[in-house]
Amino acid sequence: MSAGPLFVVLASPEHEKVQLAGMMASVAAVSERPTQLFVSMAAIMIFEKGLSAEARYKGGAFSAAMLEKGAPDAIELFAQGKILGDLKIIACSMALAIQEWSLDDLEDGLFDEAGGLTKFLSDAEAGELIVL
Amino acid sequence: MTTTTIDARGSYCPGPLLELIAGLKLIEIGDEIEVWSSDMGSVKDIPEWVAKVGHEMGETVEQDGYWSLRIRKSK
User: Domain containing B57 — which CATH number?
Assistant: First the structure.
C-alpha cells in the first residue's frame, strides 16, 4: 500500500459503491494513510439525516444480501474511520445547492465541511484518486 | 500483561479490524488482544495492518468455524 494519502470521490448512491467507499475510506484512514472523501452528485442523498437502512441503501445486486446478512452499515464505517483514523469528509457544495440542503441536513458528525471540486482535486495531486 | 478477548464472529470485513483498533485504544502497551473472527479475509488483513502500524502479531489459530488472532500492543 502506498504511503501517500488516498482521495475518494463518491458520486453514486448505489449501495454497493457506497459500501465499498466506506470500506476503503475507513481501512485506509486507520492504516496511517490520511484519507479524504468527496461526496457529490446523487451520493449526497444517502447521507440524509435520519433515514432507515432500508430507505438509505439501494441498488446493486448485493444490496439486499448485505442488508439481510448484516454487513457493516456504511455510515458507521465512515464514522469509525473518522473516530479511529485520519478521515476527512467533504460535501460537494454543488450537490448541496442542487438539493437545497445545508450540512445540517446530513447525518451528524460525518462531514467536516462543504467544499468545491477544485480544492479537492488540488489536494488530490498529492496522492491516489479513486472515483466511485 | 492482560489479555482482552474481542468476539467479532459474525462481523464482516472490515468489522473485525475496526473492533481490534478500537480495542487497542483501551489497553496499555504490552497488553494483548485476542480477536475471534469468522471472516476469512481478516486472517490476512489483521496481520497486514498490525505489521504496517507497528504492533506485534502473535499466533493465529484456526478454531471450529473461526480464527483466533493474538495481537500485542507495541506503541
Answer: 3.30.110.40
